[in-house]
Amino acid sequence: MSMVTGKKIGFIGGGRMGEGIFSGILKAGLIPPQDLYVADIREEHLEDLRKQYGMNVINSSTNDGLKTLIDSVDVVFLAILPQVAPRLLPFINECLDDDRHYVFSIMGGVLTTTIEQEIKSASLVRIMPNTPMSVCEGCAGIVPGKNCKLEHKEMALEIFNRIGLGLLLPEPQIDPLTGISGCGPAFCGIMIQALADGGVYLGLTRDDAIKIAAQTLVGTGKMVLEQGIHPEILKDNVCSPGGGTIGGTVSLERSGFRAACIDAVIDAVDRMNEVVK
After folding, report:
1. What is the helix (H) or strand (E) element at residue 248, kind and residue range?
2. CB neighbours of 102 closer than 8 A, spacing ≥ 6?
3. What phi, psi does 25 have (nearest 5°)?
4. The Cα angle at residue 127 between residues 124 and 128, in degrees rounded to 5
5. Mean pLDDT score across all residues of the chain
6. Helix or strand or coil: residue 155?
7. CATH code, residues 182-276
8. How far is the first Cα of the chain from the last one, in angstroms, to the nearest whole number?
9. Using a CB cutoff of 8 Å and minimum separation of 24, what contacts does 63-68 make?
10. Which residues in the chain are classed under CATH 3.40.50.720?
């Protein structure tokens, strides 16, 4: 039986990343819209979300709104900005029932130990998600807190493996995961655009070139994940001697493509750490 069946899930914060997760949860059929709650301070944004997804919405511009959401749900997602956490977390902690509530934090760069200074005894899991969860193709790092219950950890794995790939990781590995999965959609977007530009140069329409490039990335990723093909073998399998693919591969190597990808991940993580400091 699903760990999520019969649970009511609430999001404190209806921003882009939170929406990516709850839209994926609904798309995957994990819960019906009437069991989903979203709290936000933007009334117009809440109304847009309600019209699009059919969930319950609550204005959280006052503490009463926050309490209403928490009282209504079993699972609480902290989808708030890290800079407002010191102000909100003490009140949120007062509203939590340790025997009932599970807490998921998707706050970027905020360690479990930092959250647990305020969320003192409730079961906590930190999640580092990414935007493709909205189409059930996401990737999430999962870090159980010190008070995390076994069923909470299992629920996290179920939810995030239903809307993509969920990986239990030690907290120090969340930063490199973020450099790949969190920043990667931007890097993949650049690659899709660049591949499409090549197609347009050779006569494809822009729309067709983008679709071809995007589908190629989707299909290649699925071959790695579903068939277990190592990327190097995948590359070798389409590089016939003296053929066009090996010619293009040599061009990428001459241009430092691999090094550029490696540097992008490393530089992204370095920059994130600078911002946090």
Report:
1. helix 244-254
2. 74, 75, 76, 122, 123, 125, 149, 152, 155
3. -60, -45
4. 155
5. 95
6. helix
7. 1.10.3730.10
8. 43
9. 63/91, 65/39, 66/12, 66/39, 66/91, 66/92, 66/95, 67/95, 68/39
10. 9-173
Residues 226, 133: Cα–Cα separation, whole Å: 18
- Which residue is listed with tokens 């990781």? 169
Q: What are phi and psi of 239, to 5 degrees?
A: -100, 85
pLDDT digits (tens, 9 = 90+) for 139-150: 999 999 999 999
Which DSSP symbol is given to 13? -
pLDDT grade, residue 276 (50/70/90)?
low
Residues of CATH 1.10.3730.10 domain(s) within the chain? 182-276
Q: What CA–CA distance (Å, rounded) separates 32 from 44?
A: 23
Q: Which CATH superfamily is domain 9-173 in?
A: NAD(P)-binding Rossmann-like Domain (3.40.50.720)
Is the pLDDT assigned to residue 277 strictly greater than 90? no
| Amino acid identity for residue 250 in this structure | V
Beta-bridged to residue 167, according to DSSP, are: 141
- With residue 53 as reference, give the H or E element that holds it: helix 43-53
For strand 123-128 and strand 138-144, is the pairing parallel, antiparallel, or unpaired? antiparallel
- Give the C-alpha separation, 174 to 142, whole Å: 8
Q: What is the 3-state secondary structure (H, E, C) of 159-224?
A: HHHHCEEEEECCHHHHHHHHHHHHCHHHHHHHHHHHHHHHHHHCCCCHHHHHHHHHHHHHHHHHHH
What is the per-residue pLDDT across 205-256, written as a single tens digit (0 to 9) for each?
999 999 999 999 999 999 999 999 999 999 999 999 999 999 999 999 999 9
Model-level pTM?
A: 0.92
